[in-house]
Amino acid sequence: MTCALEVNHLYFRYKEFSLEDVTTSLHLNEQKALVGLNGSGKTTLLKLIVGLLEPESGSIHIFERKVERENLWDIRKDVGFLFQNPDDQLFAPTVWEDAAFGPRNLGLPPDDVEERVEWALGMVGMSHFSDRPVNQMSYGEEKRVALAGIIAMRPKILLLDEPFAGLDFPMISTMVDIVQNLRDEGISVLYTTHDRFFLENWADSVAVLHEGKLIYDGPAERALQDVSIQQQIGDLDALGRRLKEYRGIA
Amino acid sequence: MGKFLLPFREGFHAVRAFSPTSIVVTSFAMGVVLSVQTQVPILLLLVGLILLIGAVAGTRWRTVLSFAARFEIVILFWVLLLPFFFGSTVIFTVPLPWGQLLAYREGLELGILICLRILAIVTLFVAALSHLSLAEFIGALKTLRVPSSVLGSLLIMLRYIPLFIEERHRMQEAQRLRGFAQGERRERIQSLGFLVGSTIDRAMVRSTVVYESMTLRGLGRGMIAVGAGVRKNDVLLFLGLVILVYVLLNWQTLAVILQ
Lengths: 250, 259
Description:
The structure holds two protein chains of two kinds.
Chain A: E1 3-14, E2 17-27, E3 31-35, H1 42-49, E4 57-62, E5 65-66, H2 72-78, E6 79-82, H3 95-105, H4 110-123, H5 139-151, E7 157-160, H6 169-184, E8 188-193, H7 196-202, E9 205-210, E10 213-219, H8 220-225, H9 227-233, H10 236-246
Chain B: H1 20-35, H2 40-57, H3 61-68, H4 72-85, E1 90-96, E2 99-104, H5 105-129, H6 134-143, H7 148-177, H8 185-216, H9 234-258
Antiparallel strand pairs in B: 1-2
């Protein structure tokens, strides 16, 4: 299978935190979950992939091109990164302007920019919000607009940092549909989560990080059977039993 | 949900007689006219004219004036302090343990003049901005060839300063819920110090992430906004301004002749 993304023996250190010998890959049109507890290095790994951070050693390849300082812009045309907090991403006066920011920077003519923005806003179901100021939306709407700003650049790989954090059920359902539609267009997706549900039901494969080390990289089904990995993901059944005990039901 | 720093009209497209660029340029020119006025009656007349035009144009005066009122400290500063520092004609004295404090007529008049100028200019600009959306304002600046780097910084400032204020407000609320008011004065001062420190720290972190996210989408590689263009009707706006300047110039000439 063709690799969209390859991470080879990656080392990174910042103060007390370090990523050690991380090797993983993302195949074309694959959807991979990057799982781990808080502080395990999930977001750091995503930032290394898009070149926001530089590794100490090791390498990252996007479609067989090594991620280096010299070719960062070319790499970033192919990789879209959705931040966890949409407030960190939306800065333009209106939804339309924010979605147009990336395509304009790609140097596209105005007609193409407009076509891309319409397409992106349509994909996330926010076309009717195009004139809305970015500060007048709910958290879920902000998240969708932030995603529109990314996909308007037509990336081939999407990195989603906790895409469902803080969303209510209808919005989660909408986000799932949006990402599925993007996958139908051939986009590969790497997303971080610490929610067992999205690992079990949404991922083709799983990479598990624990204290900066990759402890598992493979199919989701096998990950869920491994006790040491279950500890990283969290055993919801055990938690449910404990809660029942507290309430005197068990 | 945070608001933008200035009282912009929400939304993006608007059907109106004048282009955003002409509104910005005319306001700036009018601001210059106001800043060179040396006579209080003329300034008052111009303030009245601004209020009248605003009323005709449907300016949200409540919003505009409440925003302009935030400058009252600056305005009061001039009126209250200038009489004690400038002039020669004493109007009253304030006895103090170490001597007398003299207030001068010329200082008071200058203070009032400066106050009126500030008030008029602030009201004028805020009223003008209240007729524009942020997108139109940025578009107008783009048409006026303001560099993209400046526009980018301006956008970030207008968008994120209210967010920082909101965050500080939330932290203050959290402090109050945990008995901030019950603490001793020393503890309260210390808590305020922590609050300021945390706000600055968060602002730094947020700025870094915003910059990162903009970099990922190619900051500095293209346009940050599209220009706002001009319309035929803008001629009327500029014509009105020219007539006003002409009248003012002649008025002052007449006053000199009469004296």
